Structures
1.
Amino acid sequence: MIDKNIAQILVGIDSNTVLSGARKVKTKLITELNHQGLSEEVKVIETGSIGPTNQGVILGVFPGGELYANITEDDVEEFVQEKFVKGRIYQKRLLSETLPEELRLLEYDSRRTQQYGRIVLDNCGRISPDDINEYIGVGGYEAMGFVLLQKSPEEIIDIIKDSGLRGRGGAGFPTGLKWSFTFETKKFPKYVICNADEGEPGTFKDRLIMEGDPHKIIEAMVIAGYAVEAELGYIYVRGEYNLSIERLQNAIKQAKEMGLLGKNIFGSGFNFNIQIKIGAGSYVCGEETALLSSMEGYRGEPRLKPPYPAQQGFLQQPTLINNVETLANIPSIILNGSEWFRRFGTESTSGTKVYTVLGHVNRPGLIEVPMGITLREIIYDYAGGISSGKFKMAQIGGTAGDVFSERLLDIPLEYRSLQELGHNLGSGALLIMNDSVSVSDFLTSCMKFFVHESCGRCSVCRIGTKHLYEAFKRLNEKEGYFDELENIQDIANILKLTAFCPLGQSVAQPVLSALKYFGDELSEGVNIDKKRKFPTREQKEKVVYYS
Ligand SMILES: Cc1cc2nc3c(=O)[nH]c(=O)nc-3n(C[C@H](O)[C@H](O)[C@H](O)COP(=O)(O)O)c2cc1C
């Protein structure tokens, strides 16, 4: 556990840094400290993600609280010498002189004269995810004890409703309301599902939450189970998330051993267990009804809604489905109250949001910021500015998200402001692009993704995504038909209005927003002399549609 008063090296071990050799660096650190006779004075601690990504192995080091990046095994000897023998900063790999929690949220809020901590990522990078005692040491499982021993399900649901928490899986549905629908459906057994499928390209916040603080998800699921009267929970996690699965399994085992899962938890008479279901990594399986089909052993295809999962979910029973980040807010809301939670963010959207910031920025990585912060603040205050060239566009919320131009840099990222413009917040990926990126090229690659991921069940999506892909490809090659932009708009609108599930409907988001903000650039890909064989747009307009 992080303790700023003793000498410590926090090694951020998550699935990004493991690939850069984090485990080897950790072993070498231990050996080198031993060699220097410092193993008693300096502790090496394995944590989850400390924040920065794409920057190799990350170390947080005390005393001093500096952050080092791109540390390799070859650095270790010199690093230990400099930092712990000579007492100096190891300049060669210094990323910043402050750890992310000071660097980000607090710095941001100090300008607003209020100091906030993190909520969701509170423990990430600060405690060992493999040790339940570390979680308990920072107040873990207290909220669960309070709920099981002192509150009724209705009281818990009221707290969550009052907090204003909305789902962080993309749709932004009010969480308390969803819990109340599941509670009110009196059919047993009921289930709680944590949606950890996280298929949206560029989004990996849930992975880093699970890797960094798995017990928080378990605690939140027990609270949710109690509130909706379910006794079994599932975490549906994608198969590629090996480290998340490993840490969750370990956390479940430890919680069971301590009696925090199982029968009669805290002597309250409430029973709850959690199982992990491993998905095969299909994008559409993150959509809640496709997820249910997949869990039941069918093809991962969406179902018609209604009935909603709260009424008829897993095995036709009432089921609460929440995203990882949504759940990770629950214990803090219970402990601190809904009013406290509302202090974060804006009037219409309370709390914080965890984003993965990617692309042409100097400091890509994971951040947690209050709702309502603007894209400009995220890029320039948190992500260190544009890494090369000039800002051109950003995609908000994954491949199914809207494409923003410079005009939207100062729009507060929260539900109401975005909805007024016809946009939404999506999953939490912020892909920042500079002026070297062509809009048609970018959209071609987005459409390629949808062609691949469309489940094929409805022809509008199966065929529409293919047509869009080909249209953007033509524009990119400056070979667009004379009416290509209208054609793209028509197909996107058809998808939005008639696709069977939200996957097909959401394809319209990047397409229509790109047309809105980058129509001029896209029209440069039109070859005005290139006519369609049949029908022309004029002919199409003469077609009579019957309803
Ligand atoms: C194509 C598609 C993929 C989705 N993928 C995910 C996902 O990976 N994780 C997730 O939590 N929600 C995903 N969702 C949203 C879920 O359907 C659902 O709204 C969410 O799990 C509800 O949890 P929340 O209320 O806590 O946000 C997806 C939706 C669509 C249409």
2.
Amino acid sequence: MEFLLVLTHVDDTGTALSKASLEAVTAGVELAAQLGAQLSIGCLGGAAALNAVASTGARLLAVSGEPFAQARYASDAAACEALCRAAEATIVLAPGTSRFTRVAAGVAHRLGGFIDTHITALTGAEAIEATRWFYRQRVEAVVTRDARPWFLLLDAGTHAAFAGAPAAAPVEQVAVELPALRTTVSGLRAPAQDAQTIRPDAKMLFVTGAGWTKKQPDGQIHADLAGDLILGFLRLTGASLGSSKSLVDQGGEGVPVLPFLTHMNQIGQTGATPRHAKGLSTCCHGEEPHVVGWRFIADRRAISLDPNCGWSRGKADVVYIADAFQVMAKVNALLEEKKA
Ligand SMILES: Cc1cc2nc3c(=O)[nH]c(=O)nc-3n(C[C@H](O)[C@H](O)[C@H](O)COP(=O)(O)OP(=O)(O)OC[C@H]3O[C@@H](n4cnc5c(N)ncnc54)[C@H](O)[C@@H]3O)c2cc1C
């Protein structure tokens, strides 16, 4: 019989499970049912957060205390190891958050186990079949392993967040033997919310292309206006900002740039492949190396001046042949009106 442990951690509030953790819980509940496995859920950073998953009926384990309030390799790895040992885990599911991605391979090694990352689906009744993508999301592989414990890091957005009724649940506190801690976490420094344009949890991806900084029908470049329209839309909708490669590359070529864009925003073959329910592309041609990054965007729309662009040739669900400056100004005005 498999002993399945879902590793979770609290979010920035320190009291609730992170969304990615709740997604891993859903995956764990489904897989445990398929395998007839015993399910445990372990939490880093607070027992109370486990009330949200009490209705799973799983064995609940927690590691609490000041050293685990912040992410730090030594304390997090020791805590995960203690949780795995307490659950006698043969299968460990964890969300692929920065906190777990940093320590999971080390923990697997300490337990003599094996790890696979970027898992998108788990199936199989006899043996576990874990699915992941290779070669920039072009080749999908199904992985099975006999090695135990087997650690599987799940990509965010591949499962629904667990949403059972919260209840006070009996939680077993797991003691952790901490090694000497060389790293002191003095605090968190993060960009202001409106400066952080990459938002994996957003419903919508808003993509900007090189057209925003090209000469427009009046013969002029309107980079400042472009910046205002784009940031206005992000502020009003909370959408995540993506870009074509051409636009983010322009900084190095002396062309007017949008200062809030970096290569981290790039979507495509040599960029990111995010998961969002909807995507809106603006001033972007929709070439294949860009569109391959839209693989996991469910509803794709584009605004382009070019009726022959890649988007128009069957890559988007809806294409608006229109001037994005005009369309986005109108959209922002309507959103402002709605908000007021
Ligand atoms: C090996 C390789 C890897 C690559 N990887 C990536 C990648 O990861 N991501 C990526 O994005 N690209 C990638 N590329 C580059 C890709 O092929 C394209 O060159 C790039 O995506 C084009 O960017 P763009 O559509 O923004 O610019 P352009 O091709 O210049 O298109 C600009 C568009 O804006 C439109 N436009 C202009 N003004 C307006 C307006 N006012 N309103 C509406 N539309 C307007 C124009 O009609 C045009 O269609 C890669 C290329 C190679 C060879």
